Amino acid sequence: MTSIMHRHLRQTPVTAVGASGLSITDSAGRRYLDASGGAAVSSLGHGHPEVLAAVHAQLDKVAYAHTAFFTTEVAEELAMRLAFNAPGGESEVYLCSGGSEAMETALKLARQYFVETGQPQRGRFIARRQSYHGNTLGALAVGGNELRRKAFAPLLMDVVRVAECYEYRNRPETQTRDQYTTVLLDELEQAIVRAGPETLIGFVAEPVVGATLGAVPPTPGYFRGVRALCDKYGILFIADEVMCGMGRCGTLYAIEQDGVVPDIVTVAKGLGAGYQPIGAVLARKYIAQAIRAGSGIFQHGHTYIGHPCAAAAALAVQKIIERDKLLDVVKARGATLRALLREAFGSHPHVGDIRGRGLFLGLELVEDRISRRPFPAACKLHAAVKVAAFERGLIVYPMGGTIDGERGDHVLLAPPFIVSDGELGDIVTRLADALRAALAQVRL
Ligand code: PMP
Q: Of 104, 181, 215, 235, which residue is most buried, by most CB within 10 angstroms?
């Protein structure tokens, strides 16, 4: 191995040589059931013939044309489709190559909006503690994941930090759900006031938290409260739907279920479903119009923005989701998977919580179910589950292990939308077996 692409540089990664449907095959001929779509990416499974054909056709037509000179039909059609279906409609679209790029774009777009509208003093973002928004420097700075941030702390811009909305772990028994939500919103308002509302650009949050906590949805009313505070203080609301968006939660955008319209939404993973690297930023029209009416140039750009082959993949994926009514399938299969998980783990002594939306479901593993005490970080239970599942031919996305060791262990399930009921059963059976083996190992 000569690359430094893999996080664990001392391990030799398994080589994938084939993939079809929910299955990935390695060079030794072993097959793995992909129950997380990688990291909530492969929403149509692997090797979907229509998506492959769309990419091939675009390769033949125009593989690449720089946006300084050209647009392409396929990029325009995708952008129109995304703009039309965006939360609240009335949006403009920026196509890039992935989630972090989408977040960088969103942060810069939000900042430039205020520069163009005569509020250049707005220079800081407000974001949540348990959060992940990408690994490039801007995205890493707004994210609160201490493990990922630590080595780069001197390079990161200063961000105002508030608590995440994480009912299972953070709501005291003495509080109702509504009271907990009010406490969070009060904290947010106090943080805004303390920082000086006129100095803030935007509040950044994942509608359903994915990459640091397994599929944690907000409490009812939380994002309505966030929206109201952003409006009150003239701050933009940036919803990071890189992981939870594009149908994963049963609606095209997860935030639709919270009944609010963000100013800017970012998407990536499920947009191209892994067939090409692509992300997008959807900005409400007034943001783009302010820049158009001001300097006329968004001071941003990458060589591969609006890439035609990436756009062709995403367009094909999104058309299939609509044609095959896959959002309904996500809702139905999500309910089935949740029921299977409840059956298998509902009274499991080490599964504290089963949660999520659509086919974006998480388990929180705890040492003690009553007190909700997590396993000690040193156990690395999440990592043991990943390995045990992989050995059983199952791919799940585990998370855990912060510096302070308080985050606990989570398992994220995000199977492709085309998963069958039989495969869902198989996923849960293998996961139960893997969890048994992992628990036995950490208790040694
Ligand atoms: N935001 C969220 C919510 C994510 O889950 C991720 C990736 N896990 C990113 C941003 C960054 O996306 P990418 O890895 O494509 O750069």
A: 215
